[in-house]
Amino acid sequence: MPKLTIDKAGVEVPWGTTILNAARTVGIRIPSLCYLEGVHVVGGCRVCLVEVEGARTLAASCSMPVAEGMKVRTNTPRVRAARRMVVELLLSDHGGECQTCVRSNDCELQTVARDLDVRELHFTGAQHQRLVDTSTPALVRDSSKCIMCRRCITVCSEIQATRALWAQDRGFESVAAPAFGHDLSSVACVQCGQCAAVCPTAAITEKDHIEQVWAALSDHSKHVIVQTAPAIRAGLGECFGLPPGTRVTGRMVSALRRLGFARVFDTNFTADLTILEESTELLMRLKTALVDRLPVALPQFTSCCPGWIKFAEYFHPDLLPNLSTAKSPQQMFGALAKTYYAQKTGRKPGDIVVVSVMPCTAKKFEAQRPEMNAGGGQDVDAVLTTRELGRMITQAGIDFLALPDETMDQPLGISSGAANIFANTGGVMEAALRTVWCMVTGRPFPFEKLHVTPIAGLAGVKEVAITIPDTVPEWKFLKGQPLNLAVAHGLANAERLIQKVQAGEAHYHFIEVMACPGGCIGGGGQPRFTTNEVRLARMKAIFAEDESKQLRLSHENPSVALLYRDFLGQPLSEKSHHLLHTHYHARSLN
User: Fold this and answer.
1) How far, in Å, are 99, 110, 113 from residue 104 at the CA level?
2) How do residues 349-378 score in pLDDT, each as one tens digit?
C-alpha cells in the first residue's frame, strides 16, 4: 500500500484511495459539497481543494488518488483562501433565506461557510432566476438554492435509473432540472426523494404536510389518528442528536400522544396483514402454474414500495400483471381506518383523519392516488416524513429525550417482529417466507439463525433458493419444489435484475423490490445524512426490534386473526379484495 503524509501525519492506505478518504483515516476532515461516498466523484464543487507538494495547482481531494511518497497539506493559507472564495461565489448566487429555510442548521453549505469563517460576501452580480416547482405531491424544487453539485443527478441516474433530473444549459445558466426545464410532474420521476436526501441545501425538499396536520389536530370535530412505519423507530432519534440506530419506539409513541393524536397506531399491524394477503396470493399463483398448468404471471413482485410501483408503471408496464395486487401497509391501514375502525368506534369515515409517519416521500404521492379510496374518500389524509415529525415535536416544545416509553393503542397497534423487518431490504421477503413456510409445512419457522442471511445486508441484488422439505396435504404439490427468491434495492439494481429475468438468464418465483438503498431505513424522508454506516446501524436496530418480540410471525398476530374473523373473512376474500387490493396502470413518459 502507498505511504504518504497528510499534514505531517503518516498515512498508509490501499491503492485507489482518494486523498479525501485517506485524510479521514487520520482524523482530518476535508470539507466537500459534491462528494457522495461510493457513488459520486466529480471534483465539481472545488470545496475540497488541497495542496500537493510538486503540483502547480490545488487538487480536488475527492477525486485525486493517493500516490507513494505524496505530501499533502490541507490547511495552508492558500487552501483556506481558495475554499473561502469558492463558498463565497456559491453564496453570492444562493437564495438568502437562511433564517427561515427548512434546512437551516441542516444545510451543508451553511456548515461549510461557518467552518471556513465566511462572515461577509465580496461578490455581487447576476443571480439565477428563481423557479419553484411544486407540481408533484411529494417534492418541491427551488432553483435559487441549487449549487450544481450534481448529487441529485447522480442518484437519479446511477442509483434509481430514472434520469428525471439532468444538467440543463451551460455555464452560469446551468441548473439541475428535468429536461427542457419542465416540471417534475411531466417527467418519469418516481418521487422516491433520494434527490432530497442527498441535496446539501434546500434545492429539493419534501412537500411539507405539517401545517395540514396541525390544522387537523386543532379541529375538534375530527378524530385524528396516526400510524407509524417500522423504519421511523430506528431513525427518529437522529433528529434529536441520538446515534443512528437508536431505538425510540416508546418515546415516539409518547411524543405523538403529546402532539394531540387521538390514537397512536402502528403500520406494522397492516404489514402483518400484507404478509397474509401477499403470501396467499403467491401460493395461489404457484398452484395455478404447478397444479392447474394454466398461465399465470410469475415471478410475483412485492408491491409495498410506491417508488417501485411508479417505476414499473413508467418503465415496465409489461410487468404490471406480475405485481402483487396487495396494497402497501400504509394504504391497507387507511382503508381499514375508514371502514373497520370507523364501525368499531361508531364514527363516520369523513370524521376520521388518518396521518401517516413514513420514511418515504413517495408515500405522499401514494396517498393521493385515485386507486386509494376504498373507504369512500382518500384513505390516508396526510403523510409526514421522519424529518417532518422531528420538526413538529420541536415546534411543540417537547423534550423528546426526556419522554417515557409508552405503547401503541389497540386494536391496530399489535404487530409481530416480522412486520418490523419490513423496514430493511430483504425484510418483506423474509417476513413472507416465515409465513409461507409455516402455512405450507405445518411446522414452526426455524429461527435458530435468527434471519435469512443471504437476503440480509446491503448487496444490491440478493437471492436465495429454498426447497420445501415436507408439506401439509393442501400444499403437497410444493413438496421438494425449489422456490427461487430475489431481493433488489435501489431501482438501478432492480432494473438489472429485471433485464436478467426478461432475458431468461434468471428464474424466480418471488421478487422483493425497494426503491431506496437499504430499503425504508434509507428512505428519502429519513434524517440526513444516510451513509452505508448509518443504514447498517438502522438495520441492526430493526432486527433487534424483531428479535425482542415474542410474536415474530405475521399470521400469529391475534388482532389480525380477529380482523379476519369479524370483518374480512379470509385472505383474498371479496371484502379483502375490495379494501386491501388494487391494480396499477401504465404511465406515459411524455
Assistant:
1) 7, 8, 13
2) 999 999 999 999 999 999 999 999 988 889
Cβ neighbours of 145 (radius 10 Å)? 23
What's the CATH architecture for 3-91? Roll (3.10)
Residue 364 is a catalytic residue:
no
Exposed (0-12), middle (13-18) or buried (19+): which is 93, by Cβ within 10 Å?
middle
Hey, what's the torsion of the CAs at 383, 577, 192, 225, to 10 degrees? 10
CB 118 within 8 A of CB 189: no
Cβ atoms < 10 Å from Cβ of 142: 20
Cα torsion at 189, 192, 197, 203 (round to 10°)? 30
Query: Residue 133: beta bridge partners?
Result: 141
> Could you tell me the pLDDT band of residue 44, with boundaries at 50, 70 and 90?
confident
Residue 366 appears among annotated catalytic residues: yes
CB 230 within 8 A of CB 425: no
Q: Is 520 a catalytic residue?
A: yes
Q: Which CATH number fits domain 279-326+417-527+545-580: 3.20.20.80, 3.40.50.300, 3.90.1150.10, 3.40.950.10?
A: 3.40.950.10
C-alpha cell read off for 556: 400469529
Q: Give the active site residue among 278, 430, 495, 512.
A: 278
Examine the residue annotation and report whether 449 is marked as an active-site residue of this protein. Answer: no
Tens digits of residue pLDDT in 556-590: 999 999 999 999 999 999 999 999 999 999 998 76
**Active site annotation includes 371:** yes
Could you tell me if 430 and 452 are in contact, meaning their C-beta atoms sit under 8 angstroms apart? yes
Residue 302 CA to its chain's centroid (Å): 15
* pLDDT tens profile 471-511: 999 999 999 989 999 999 999 999 999 999 999 999 999 99
Supply 397's cell numbers: 416544545
Domain 210-269+330-402 top-level CATH class: alpha beta
Among this protein's residues, is 173 annotated catalytic? no
**Does the active-site annotation cover 281?**
yes
Q: How many CA within 13 A on the CB side of residue 568?
A: 24
498, amino acid identity: I
How far apart are the C-alpha atoms of 374 and 424, rounded to whole Å? Answer: 28
CB 423: neighbour CB atoms within 10 A?
Answer: 32
